[in-house]
Amino acid sequence: MFQNVISAAIRGLEILPVHVETDVSNGFPQFRMVGFVTSQVREAEDRVRTALRNVDIVLPPKRITVNLSPADVPKSGSRFDLPIALGILAAARMIPPASLTNVMAVGELSLSGSLAPVTGILPIAVKAKELGIGSLLIPAANLREGRIVEGLDVIGFRDLPEVLAFLSKGVRPKEEDAASLPTPLNIYDVDFSDIRGQYRLKRAAEIAAAGFHNLLMEGPPGAGKTMAARRFPTILPSLTADESLEISQIYSVAGLLVPERPILGVRPFRSPHHTLSPAALAGGGRIPRPGELTLAHRGVLFLDEMPEFSRSALETLRQPLEDREIVISRAMGTYRFPANFLLVAAMNPCPCGYYPDMNRCRCSANAISAYRSRISQALLDRMDLFVAVRAMRYEELTGSDTAKTPEPSARIRDRVEKVRGLQQARFSGTGIRFNSEIPASRLPELCPIDAETDTLLSRAFSVLHLSARAYHRILRVSRTIADLDESERIRKKHVEEAIDYRPRVLGSGPDEEYRP
Question: Would you say residue 507 has pLDDT above 50?
Fold first, then answer.
């Protein structure tokens, strides 16, 4: 007899419905599986047979054929164990075939018959709702994640007997507290008030957070660059419901969601070590998985000691910083991963970190030149803001300098949220979220400037040898500075500040301190 069970395959971040077609017929007893399956899926034969035997179900000695359709889509992982087992039992008429109508099943079977959690449940649940599926059968450990999607009957099971009891008799499993959905956390244990002084750095961080602009910090060791970067999430705009669901689906596919917190309430902050490979940064593998750039989507990617990353890894950043997505081509197809992140990077001015203080710097001119050249001009051109961070003064470090009390993150975030509101109103219905995403073709419309400001930009373009990309980024940063100033129009002072933050020759020393 024939039976069809709906399941799902993950292709990059795309969820594809898979029909697990099972036929149990007379003939030489065997178990055959077809449909572009990997070795992980083929191993389901042993897991399913053993799991059924250990729950006292004996399969008839017949020819069992399982086809995972469509055949041109590669299937991997262990999520097909449950639908394969249910398809065999329904085809053998050991459970009612009608009970699997309008039902999607996903789950891994252990040899004892219990159900183990699998990755990607959240996007699978979203896809099931889009397809009009009535019920989604998943492992109980994934129930919190599946229940995030409303309007879909998501049922979690601990073992195969519970699934069979539900399909045969309609007995729903006891859910205990698994059905309750936790509130996403957005509490931090760090704050910008921890940073003494460094007003110019804080101002640049506020601009970057408000408009989602890339930031590069250069300064000696211990100046507060890493400290500021790790506090960046505390001043970023709150996640919208759509953004939270979007990034939670990415983390679900990557297997990084915590069962107790199946939905992210804060923007991602990724800080990979400088030894990571280009494939780990962009995503890779025979069947590509999300890399660090995609895991930082809608959040922050922090590269500490940026010149220490390999040149090939750094150059991987260039295309995603422009297109805000990564395209990976394989023989089996093309995979697209979102990569709309805010890049925050930190570096020393030289290998020892103390240039241009020649009383402390012991690096040769060749060593300094080689160190700086690790960051290409093409990549430097894609940074929106550059801050040369100076060493801390003793009075600032000890708090004896009372010229200005450090501002807490909450106050900075209030201003950032206000600018976020302005951007939402400005870009309503366009798909643009932040000023950094304004297309070059719409800059004249959304970032108009007067004749005086145009003259300033013209002079800066020729004197600083700016590229077209740099010119466009100055306008976008100017728009954010004007928004922070609650100015509807971009004025000369806004453009002057944006130009002052343009990346220039590295290692030129700290800028004059900016005091708001």
Answer: no
